[in-house]
Amino acid sequence: AEEGRRRAPELAPVLRALRAAAPDLRARGVRRLWVSGPVARGEARPGCGVELLCEFEPGSRVSLVGLASLRAELAALLGAPVALAERVALPPGPARDAAERDAVRAL
């Protein structure tokens, strides 16, 4: 299948692509963005998606449709599936702790 042929996403090119897209991301209200999960830890496999945590500018109103649209835009930019979560939406606990511990800031 196509997913099996896709190379594993690597942190450095992901960071470069996100930073190059910073003006567009900021225009959409993105204040900060982190890469998390296997890509941030250098453990990604072929077909692996990119986990991103984002923080929006205070007062930004981002709808679910807006969040889905941003996720699709990021997936197209990175050439890999993207899981996008708002940092404030992660409930306190082990999953949030792990995500924040691994996170590498892109913006």
Task: Report what the structure shows.
A 4-stranded mixed sheet has the order 3-2-1-4, with helices on both faces. It has helices spanning 2-5, 11-20, 22-27, 37-41, 64-78, 94-102; strands spanning 30-36, 50-56, 82-86, 104-105. Strand 2 (50-56), helix 5 and strand 3 form a beta-alpha-beta unit. The N and C termini lie far apart (33 Å). The protein contains 6 helices and 4 strands. By secondary structure, the chain is an alpha+beta fold.
Topology of helices and strands:
Layout: H1 2-5, H2 11-20, H3 22-27, E1 30-36, H4 37-41, E2 50-56, H5 64-78, E3 82-86, H6 94-102, E4 104-105
How do you describe this structure in short?
This protein has 107 residues and is α+β, with helices and mostly antiparallel strands. It is built from six helices and four strands; from the N terminus they run αααβαβαβαβ.
- List the uncertain runs: none
Q: Spell the H/E element sequence.
A: HHHEHEHEHE
- From the helix content, strand content and strand pairing, which structural class follows? alpha+beta
Average pLDDT across residues? Answer: 89
Biggest sheet features: 4 strands, mixed
Number of distinct helices: 6
Distance between the termini: 33 Å
Strand content: 15-25%
Q: Give the helix proportion (percent range).
A: 40-55%
Please tally the β strands and state the result. Answer: 4
- What is the rounded Rg? 13 Å
Strand order of the largest sheet: 3-2-1-4
Q: What is the overall shape?
A: globular
